[in-house]
# Entry
Amino acid sequence: MDQIIEQIKDPQTKMMAQLMAKQQKERTESQPPETKKLNAPYPPAEKMRADIQELIRMNKALIQEFKVFKEQHEQLKKLNATVASALGACECWGNPLCPICHGEGKPGNLEVHPVAFNRFAEPLFQKLIQQTALVEEK
Ligand SMILES: [Zn+2]
# Structure
């Protein structure tokens, strides 16, 4: 078993395999002697190899998923900051625990970023102005 684990190159996967082997060894040793005789200490090497390959595959998939989530998180943080600046708000939207604005960063309380305003807020105002004009014409 140790020889198989030694062949694993990825440090995280290797650590997980070592932990699993240690836990299995502890379980086997903590069993009463009569139970020990009934259970083989380890599954066949081929099964262990297949399990490790599956763990490696799962680890790679999780790392890939994490990278995607991290990138999406960064994009959402940037979008939040842009929309907040468009409305003259802090990125926390006025959270009292914010170390930057101490809760004073609600929309309209900070300087409005004109480019962000034109992108996110101005179209809404244009639409509202048109709707108001249509109502007044009637
Ligand atoms: Zn804030």
User: Anything to note?
Assistant: Helices lie at 2-6, 11-30, 33-38, 45-86, 114-120, 122-137.
